[in-house]
Design brief:
By secondary structure, the protein is an all-alpha fold. The protein has one domain (12-160). 73% of the residues lie in helices and 2% in strands. It has helices at 13-31, 37-53, 56-63, 68-89, 102-122, 125-128, 133-140, 142-160; strands spanning 7-8, 11-12. It has a two-stranded antiparallel sheet. The radius of gyration is 16 Å and the shape is globular.
Length: 161
């Protein structure tokens, strides 16, 4: 994990990753994902909760010869895909609000916030000490991270309301 705080194009590498994720989320949400924005956000929350709270994962980490972080990230990805697939087939999200314009960008940002908060929670304390100072202030500080995990829920309520 050496070099997480290296500067590329005047920005720390970890912030460039967040910006890249935001760009990918924008691309997806403006093309194929406009009608699935809320569903993907809910799937991320559900997958994050499963990954954080499932006791079987501790056993799985001892059985599988993959580094713990990569195993957790893979399980988060697979659980998000599975949850989104199940939610897409249900009728629960049929009448859900479909945002347009600037609201799509807001939801893309919210999706990235949820992913980054979940991933930062999974990494070890030694790794988080290597993040850049601004990234650490935004995503590693427990108080700010607690606020950030509620921001998407509040924003969904305000934009939907």
């Amino acid at each position: 994990m050496e070099g997480l705080s290296n500067v590329v194009l005047g920005l720390p590498l970890d912030l460039l990753v967040v910006i890249g994720l935001f760009g990918l989320a924008l691309l997806y949400n403006f093309t194929m994902g406009r009608y699935r924005i809320i569903m993907v956000l809910v799937a991320l929350y559900m997958a994050g909760a499963v990954i954080m709270l499932a006791p079987v994962l501790a056993l799985l980490k001892t059985l599988v010869p993959i580094p713990s972080l990569w195993l957790s990230l893979g399980l988060l990805f697979l659980t998000t895909l599975l949850t989104a697939g199940v939610l897409a087939r249900s009728t629960f999200f049929d009448d859900v609000y479909n945002p347009h314009g600037w609201r799509v960008a807001v939801y893309a940002l919210l999706q990235v916030i949820v992913v980054v908060v979940i991933v930062v929670t999974m990494v070890s304390a030694g790794t988080t000490s290597e993040f850049s100072p601004i990234f650490s202030k935004i995503f590693v500080d427990p108080i700010v991270r607690s606020i950030l995990i509620f921001v998407p829920l509040i924003t969904m309520a305000l934009l939907r309301g």
